[in-house]
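User: Hi! I'm working on a homework problem where we have to compare a predicted structure to a textbook description. Could you give me the structure for the chain below?
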Amino acid sequence: MTLHAPRFRTLFAALAASVCLALPASAFDTAARSAFVVDKGTGTVLLSKNADVPLPPASMSKLMTLYMAFEAVRDGRLSLDERLPVSAHAMSFGGSTMFLDTTDRVRVEDLLRGIIVLSGNDACVVIAEALSPDGTEAGFARMMTQRAHQMDMPNSTFSNASGWPQAGHRMSMRDLATLAGHLITDFPEFYPMFAERSFAFDGRAPSNTRNRNPLLGLGVGADGLKTGHTQEAGYGLVGSATQDGRRVIFVLSGLDSARARAEESEAVVTWSFRQFAEISLARAGQPLATADVWMGASPTVNLVPAEDVSALMPVLNARNVTAEVVFEGPVIAPVFKGQPLGELVFTPEGLPEKRIPLVADAQVDKGGFSVRLSTVANLLLTRLANGPEGAM
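Assistant: Happy to help. Predicted structure tokens:
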């Protein structure tokens, strides 16, 4: 007779974190046609409005060109001091430019600042043609699309390097926020460029030396990233700000003026930091539940979070956060330290459900002969006690 461990799903009330005051935080009613706001540290989505709809991103899509340029510098395919030629195609662009011409050979570092601070369409094309597999902007745009999909940005398709209005050039607000997060995390050595408020390239464009990000210098912790505007897209901004160790990333699009963009962006940042607070729920290694171990050298094992657990909570919320540990037990020996065994599940009011993996805090080897004999005997006695059906 082969004995199998009885399996059952367990809900274990683990903890409650007290949060003070009286009412849940109200949702932010944005005038933007599409918007996405996320707390970077916890991954909590604070606002989502048409966030997965592919839309014309205007110059906000220059962030993808920058990401690929940063990768090329990191990988050694470009160097910051390398000078790149300017093609007639790059020189032909209007709108925001560095006023480059075909006699120029421009340092990569200057081109990067020209894109970030001056929103130079011509600078984007110079970078694109240098990195393209066929030397064309269109070839680079195909690379951009492929790379975006590898980075979990499924609603992004690029037709050019600058965000110039063109059929098929689309990004969703969620994708733009994902891209912003990658820029911040993957390239800390380059990210400070996004907070630079001016760049006077060669003194040739005194009217275009100022960063258009309206939040820089307002004292709200803003340090990036990129504005955008076309007639089709309206006014938009991919922004990020930090306060008291928290970072928020937000994307707004479809506003009707530069002033509306500035006011809405500041309001979103203020709301994100004032209406939410990060609350510690559990420490790494803190036992939150105990699971029985089937035929193990030890009868039980503790379930613990591998990392500290915190949640972003509306500050105006008097209700406790009830978290549950969910796992299937008993756990079959051997059990290895760090082995995933369950999840901590909780749902802050008005925010998405959070699921945190829980792991074994110790190794439990298979039990010896006496353990196996005792387990079999106890199981048989239990089945006999349950009557004829239980003894089958």
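For your comparison, note the following. Helices lie at 62-75, 88-91, 108-116, 121-131, 137-150, 173-186, 258-274, 369-385. The longest helix spans residues 258-274. Good luck with the assignment!
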